[in-house]
Write a structure and sequence with these properties.
Structural class: alpha+beta
Shape: rod-shaped
Number of strands: 17
Distance between the termini: 16 Å
Number of helices: 12
Helix content: 40-55%
Strand content: 15-25%
Radius of gyration: 66 Å
Strand order of the largest sheet: 2-1-5-4-3
Largest sheet: 5 strands, antiparallel
Low-confidence stretches: 585-589
Amino acid sequence: MYLANERNLLFVIRYLLSIVILLFSIALTTFLYFENKEAFEKIKQETEVKFINEKKQLIKEQIDNIYDYVIDEQNNTEENLKESLKTKIYDIHNVIVNIYNQYKDIYSKEELTVLIKTVIKDMKFNDNRGYFFIYDKEATNIYHGLDSKLEGKSLINHQDTKGVYVLKESLDLLKNSDESYQTWHWRKSQADKHEYKKIGFIKNINELGWFIGTGEYVEDFNKNIQAQVLKQINKFSFGKNSYFIVTDKDNNYISHINKDLIGQNAFEKLKSLNGSDDLEEILKVIKKSKGYIFLQYYKPNTTIVKSKIMYLKTIPKWDWVISTGFYKDDVDVLIDKEKELLALDYEKNMKELCVFSLLLTFILLGISFFISYIIEKRMNIYKDNIKGYMDENQKQYELLAQKTKLIAMGQMLENIAHQWRQPLSLITISTSTIKIQKELDILEDDFLLSSLNTIENSAYHLSETIEDFRDFFKPDKEKSLFSMNSVIDKTFKLLQTQFDNKQIKVIKDIEDLTINGFEREFLQVLLNILKNSMDALDLVDTERYVFIDIFKEDSTLFIKIKDSAGGIKEDIIKRIFEPYFTTKHQSQGTGIGLYMSEEIITKHMDGELTVLNVDYEFEGKRLIGAMFIISLPINIES
């Protein structure tokens, strides 16, 4: 059994750590594999969402950029118009001043007027909408680029649609400044009831006592700006199949990559490709001024219809809707490519993980074998040390056992002396009587026979006593079956005389039970316990009792031995089984009897020996004493 346990321990030392490391590596690799696989699948799913969101953000940024550009153009419309008018006036003013300076000494003022009118009559701008006019300081028209019938007429009392005296205002503005901007409001025709804002710029021609001016309707200039904006938007593009769409307030296309769609109604085109719910969603987004829509739409320059995600935004003032988007299948291609790259990266990571795991496993196994070797080496050293300690302890135990035997032998010799006193006295008395009667010649045959019988019986008793003691000292080599009645009888054969001499009453309650064990060792335990009780009872003056109860409970045999000697002091009762502990004088005890008794019961007979103080009654008397309890398994294997 010991060797098997040692082999198992060595096996554990050599291989358990390696097996644990191997299992740990396998478990870790498996965990990391599935963890990475799960992360890979999650990244694949997130990639699709990520690409879609990035594309949505991109088209939103593009639309926001165009929106900012358009708003900036709107905000600068009047400023741009003013700057344009100022430039035009400056140009024609330079022309007039140059003519004057060149010909003032040659021609009269009237001739110069004709020359100037001839030079500037074809000067127009903004698709011939823009023209010039010249007035003198009395508001008499010198030149009118739109209506020559007004030339020579005084228009001092001419009013715009808001009732402002236009020329009076012009003259007032030029009194304190050489040039000025001016705002008018006109109808474009007599039938037109709408009032249009017009911005003008006027400048003095001091050399001739005139002022020149021009103007442009804000709405007309706005249309020019819109056209420029649309032209610029048409130049914008980003990515494959990505372009911008602009529709007006009537939902007609005014900018599209497909020029054939310009002027057509966007909703009419969408009706055939999308459901009514989709169209309603688009209208809701338009009302909100901005947002994403999902619809079915033609791919550029094809009749193929694909899913498209678009972002649109409404341009205030102009009531335009600008939009752009991306086709889902184009993004799917990019997503598939990204997934392929992820798959390659994942495969690479898995290979690296396997290589790393194998390398780590080999390193850890090498370390484990080295550690196992060190531990095994240390264990062998410890084993040798422990074996030495055990051998030494065994020697000490054997010496202690031998000492116990010698002590028991001394006690047995004392018992023999007690046992032999009476038969020896009988033999001495009988022989002395026979001798005296023979000398007196009064010896009778009957008395001689009776005395010889007494001598014979006493000699037999002495012989039997010797056999009993000799049997006690025979060593137990093997377990054997023995009964409780038998072992108790043998015990009291050795102690009965001393018990009688000390007037100790023994009360027995014994079940005749049989167990398998070392009978003589068990007999030694009983002798030690009873001898301790006898010595303790020798110190009391009251009636002396020893009770022996033997019974069985379940599969356990109990031997309870109690006395009436007053018990053991509580401060030492827990120490009485310690080696060399004794309460007796050094000449009376060595302190190893009870220690050896516990060793025999626990180690040789697989039982238990305990002690406690008890308070009990017997025949109406209250008694106190120590009770030793021996518990043994009934079926002790041989």
